[in-house]
Amino acid sequence: MPVKRPRAEDAPPSRGDKPVRKSIFPPLLALILLSILLFGQQAGQPVAYLSLQGFYHNQEPPSPVDWKAVLQGPSPAPSFEPPDRLLDLNAATAEELRTLPGVGPAIADRIIRYRERYGGFVLAKELMEVKGISQERFAAIAPYVTVEKPEKQ
């Protein structure tokens, strides 16, 4: 009777000379986390919360997101009330300049510094030479401003 030779397909799987071992770490970690979640609140123990965002220990999970507000987008900007009269760029105060659309305290101060440095505005378009006033911002401001001849000192 012929002797059967062992074939490679019949051999048990191995890694070189070492036998194959399965790690117990993942199931052990799962068991620990499950025990914390189930029994953490007993006897004044700290509570751990597990959520999709992460693991929170000793603190409340983040508040739920108001998806209706997120989907509606940002709240509308406050409505703009135009000045009741045209503002003269050579005589307007910082408070008056702030009533213009897109002009805050910093840009109002820059307009006044430009006016003092160059002796006033000759054309309203010179406003675009002030840092922070682009063509778009000037287009929004232009209907509300005028330029009177600057007084010579």
Low-confidence runs:
none
- Overall pLDDT: 75
What fraction of residues sit in β-strands? 5-15%
Helicity range: 25-40%
Secondary structural class? alpha+beta
Radius of gyration: 37 Å
| Alpha plus pi helix count | 5
Secondary-structure element sequence? EEHEEHEHHHE
The coarse silhouette is elongated
Q: Please state how the strands of the largest beta sheet are arranged side by side.
A: 1-2
In total, the number of strands is 6
Kindly report how far apart the N and C termini lie: 127 Å
Note the main sheet.
Answer: 2 strands, antiparallel
Structure description:
The protein starts with 13 loop residues before the first strand and ends in a 7-residue tail after the last strand. The protein is built from five helices and six strands. Strand 3 (48-50) and strand 4 (55-57) form a beta hairpin. With 153 residues, it is α+β, with helices and mostly antiparallel strands. The strands form three sheets. The protein has a two-stranded antiparallel ribbon with strand order 1-2. A two-stranded antiparallel sheet has the order 3-4. The longest helix is centred in the first third of the chain and has 15 residues, at 25-39. The mean pLDDT is 75.
Topology:
Blueprint: E1 14-15, E2 18-19, H1 25-39, E3 48-50, E4 55-57, H2 67-72, E5 87-88, H3 94-97, H4 105-118, H5 135-141, E6 145-146
Parallel strand pairs: 5-6
Antiparallel strand pairs: 1-2, 3-4
